[in-house]
Amino acid sequence: MRACFLISILACLLLTGCAANPLTDKSQPDKVLPRSDPFARNKLLTKSINLGNFLEAPNEGDWGLKLKASYFDSIAAKGFSGVRIPVRFSAHTAADSPFTINTDFMDRVVWAVDQAERNNLATIVDLHHYQEIFADPQNEKAKFLSLWRQIATRFKDYPASVFYEILNEPHDKLDASTWNVFLNDAINTVRAVDSLHTIIVGTAGWGGISDMNSLEIPATEQNVIFTFHYYEPFHFTHQGAEWVDGSDAWLGTKWQGTSDEKNKIILDFFQVKAWAQTHNRPVLLGEFGAYSKADMESRIRWTSFVVQTAQADSMSWAYWEFASGFGVFDPQNDSWRKPLLQALLP
Ligand code: GLC
Description:
The chain is of the alpha/beta class. It has a single domain, classed as TIM Barrel. It contains 12 helices and 10 strands. It has an 8-stranded parallel beta barrel with strand order 1-2-3-4-5-6-7-8. Strand 4, helix 8 and strand 5 form a beta-alpha-beta unit. The chain binds alpha-D-glucopyranose. Alpha-D-glucopyranose (GLC) binds next to loops. Alpha-D-glucopyranose binds next to loops.
């Protein structure tokens, strides 16, 4: 009996490596995190960060940043649990059906996911900046679904720590009712090739909470996380943002952390919590952050309070973002902005 036990341990060590990390064990991903429990999956994203402005630029490097393996090491070492990777897939395909994604580009995305996995970081592959679909959804639909067929095919054998976010911040002509149809079709497209991975979806109102009640996630699909973005008060978080018209007028806006200011955030999050309870969906606060033109003291207060509120409401979060205009990391000096980092991970 005892010898048998020892032999089996030895065999286990030799054949499989008993120290295999459950999150990165590609052989049995489903056993580790059952597909029926997106709440457990969501916990992998508890404290995440957006790798913004890298693969979402028209071409990597155009916005001054290129991914490095060391970034993933450093993010994991600081104690983050996951990364959201915004990717502009739509700009890297063949012009005609079936809109094949450029091989080098897809390999680069796979490389990034592999770097995350190597560090036991969960990863969200996020379809970001698909501008054409917001202007003319019907014309883009075939390409949109083809992107998801290709992405899911490429990652279907990855562990359950990889997540698919269907589309960042739908808006404009991709209105709430159109989005519900597109979403349903995208989920079906993913599920035709991949029944394992958890899908992340947000609202048609730029991913904010105002359109929450128009969002229809197919009731038959349980393996879903609801995501929302939070940048309120917008005049504070987006002061001086070059991409927001008129935002220079808001420069100097502070966030003092008064009870009125805090209550606004608590009430907004309460609405999300109520929606999530009614619909029985786990929640990821997928983006929040205050731009670097706001004063650092206010940014720290606001970031810290948003994190506390999300955590108190059992939401996972992903800070916007790592190393650019909202950045908690300074890529020039290869160093973390400590007070901001501490606001996220006290
Ligand atoms: C959205 C946009 C991104 C922007 C961020 C903050 O994610 O896609 O480009 O930086 O919001 O405004």
